[in-house]
Amino acid sequence: MLYWLAEFSDWAGGFNLFRYITFRAGGAFFTALIFGFLFGPPLINLLRKRQRNGQPIRADGPESHLVTKTGTPTMGGVLILGSLMVGTLLWARLDNPYVWLVVFVTAAFGVIGFVDDYAKVSNGNVRGVPGRVRFSIGLVIAAVAALFATMIHPDELAFRVAVPVFKDILLNLGWFFIPFAMFVIVGAANSVNLTDGLDGLAIMPVMIAGTALGVIAYTVGRVDFTTYLDVHYVPGTGELLIFSAALVGGGLGFLWYNAPPAAVFMGDTGSLALGGALGAIAVATKHEIVLGIVGGLFVVEALSVIIQVVYFKSTGKRIFLMAPIHHHFEKKGWPESQIVIRFWIIALVLALIGLATLKVR
Known about the structure:
By secondary structure, the chain is mainly α. Helices cover 65% and strands 2% of the residues. The protein has one domain (2-356). It has a two-stranded antiparallel ribbon with strand order 1-2. Strand 1 (160-162) and strand 2 form a beta hairpin. Helix 4 (97-123) packs antiparallel against helix 5 (131-152). It starts with 20 loop residues before the first helix and ends in a 5-residue tail after the last helix.
């Protein structure tokens, strides 16, 4: 929205700054951060009043959670999404289709998560919206996003998947690109959701992955950078750096209150929305495979659940003491803060490896 202030640059040269994506990304970051700091306390107080017993805690989960986490309100994702949307809509170009693609996916998955959180709190148990219902609605949202992506991508990129490291390989999936993109978006949303099990565990890796994807979006949106790096050029995706910056700002604002011991949980409202956002950025920038590297921590968390379920159904035994894998380490006696910080380190390393694929050709 504020981009249009650049039209006044003929009257005052300072307004020309609004033409620059990097300047507006900084504005989006600080806007989202300040929004989170300002509205965090009143939102948490409201959630505490509305949720007398807080988020329901799994009886079959780590025993310590029944003591340390009982009574903590959920739906803190509302704070993240509010910060993110305000920062993005205020500073991004609203005539950019990639911005609306990512905003649509984020908001839609946020609604799914909010309804699920509301059902859990209202019923006083961990059963919210049935998983099949959530998954089916997520697929519909992802299908709409995938179709829209093929419409706004350049003809030479539509329906194609770029292979990292190999500069000349673009796999033409044809209409199979749609289910592939759906898998990326829905998979990312649910993987982040599974990771959100300890105070601060999910939000920092989301911010790290969001930063990496923002850099990728800015890079592939500039023809000079793509020419130098020999990566595909996707005109217009540079604006997604503003979305990523707002995500990081909103995430930091939330982490201030989610740091151990958490005053509020993000809930499915935040985890599904943020995961969907990462998937949507990857689809928009044609870096779907790189997302598997940048968000490798989320992939491992999801795989640990899949492996556990399949192995248990086949043998009646468990590979992990508990899944997702962060609970396995809890059961082994690792302190919560140790698990969280080590997982943050892993997320950072994986993000750097993902960024390296831009240069390694």
